[in-house]
Amino acid sequence: MPQTSRALLQLSLHPVTAADEHFLRQLYREVRDPELIPLGWPSVQVAAFCDMQYNFRAANHGQYQPPVISSLVRVEGVAVVRVDIVHGPGEWTLVNVELLTAWRDRGLGRQLLETLQRQAAQAGVAILLTVEVASRAAAVYRRCGFISMQSDG
Fold first, then answer.
1. Residues ≥6 apart with Cβ < 8 Å to 116
2. If we measure between CA atoms, which residue out of 139, 115, 136, 146 comes closest to residue 11?
3. What are the pLDDT digits (tens) for 78-135?
4. How far, in Å, CA of 87 to CA of 70, rounded?
5. Interacting residues of 143 by C-beta distance below 8 A, sequence separation 6+
6. How are strands ordered across the β-sheet holding 11-15?
7. Among the listed residues 23, 9, 30, the one whose alpha carbon sits nearest the alpha carbon of residue 75
């Protein structure tokens, strides 16, 4: 695993609880805004769409076997990242990572991935994920040593 030259942040992972619902909905909306704002929808329509999609995702995650484990990553006690992982036999599937915009470009995503890679190595499992090849996230995954197994485009 490549090492980062940035100062390491004090990360802690915590299981998502019902008390986190408001934050999670706000985070989902923040992550989706860049693709929705250009549509020109009124704010109330964007909010309704995000709520619908959030609810759909929550229901879909309930279909995974083994189940999706959702965690919040906190930095100095403040929730800044949602990470969803399926801990399967022989492999972990990284289903979703959402990072507050204000915390991007600080090395936090990379540090989180490196932490997950160490944990997976200790458990003797690989980490699998799916990502859009041209996304910002794909570049972070490549810097952390992930390799493309197949491409849909």
1. 83, 85, 92, 94, 127
2. 115
3. 999 999 999 998 999 998 899 999 998 888 888 998 999 999 999 999 998 888 777 7
4. 11
5. 2, 110
6. 11-15, 68-75, 78-88, 91-99, 126-129
7. 9
CA 66, 14, 6 angle in degrees (round to 5)? Answer: 110
Q: Which residues neighbour 78 within 8 Å (Cβ) at sequence distance 6 or greater?
A: none
Long-range contact set of residues 120-125: C-beta below 8 Å, sequence gap at least 24: 120/92, 123/92, 125/87, 125/88, 125/90, 125/91, 125/92
CB 114 within 8 A of CB 4: yes
Q: What is the pTM (predicted TM-score) of this model?
A: 0.83
Q: Please, how many CA atoms are within 13 Å of residue 144, restricted to the half-sphere of its CB?
A: 21
Residue 69, strand partner residues? 85
